[in-house]
Write a structure and sequence with these properties.
The relative contact order is 0.10. The protein is 72% helix and 0% strand. The chain is mostly helical. This is Intracellular septation protein A. Keywords: Membrane, Transmembrane, Transmembrane helix.
């Protein structure tokens, strides 16, 4: 419980508040300890911690999505407030 919940939350808040890291970077770094623990448990004990494996999968998928959205953010942010159709100004595509 301590390794899987308390330490990642503490690391996230320390990195994001004290070191002014972005939420994406702090989230990725704070998830490393539980990820390593899950992988070590699978390798050494040869048992699968289902919750740990689900969290590891969500961590990896969330990290990939966050990083891919962050790199595309500059192009989508420019058009976020514009109507869907520039010809008529409606929010529906024409």
């Amino acid at each position: 419980m301590l390794v899987d919940v308390v330490i990642p939350v503490a690391v996230f808040y320390v990195l994001s508040n004290a070191f002014h890291m972005s939420a994406i970077a702090a989230g990725l770094i704070s998830g490393v300890v539980p990820a390593i623990r899950t992988i070590v448990t699978i390798v050494t004990k040869r048992t699968v911690d289902v919750l740990g494996l689900v969290m590891l999968t969500l961590f990896v998928v969330g990290g990939v999505v966050s990083v891919s959205k962050a790199t595309r953010g500059s192009s989508t942010r420019r058009t976020a407030g514009s109507p869907a159709c520039s010809a008529c100004g409606s929010w529906r595509p024409c």
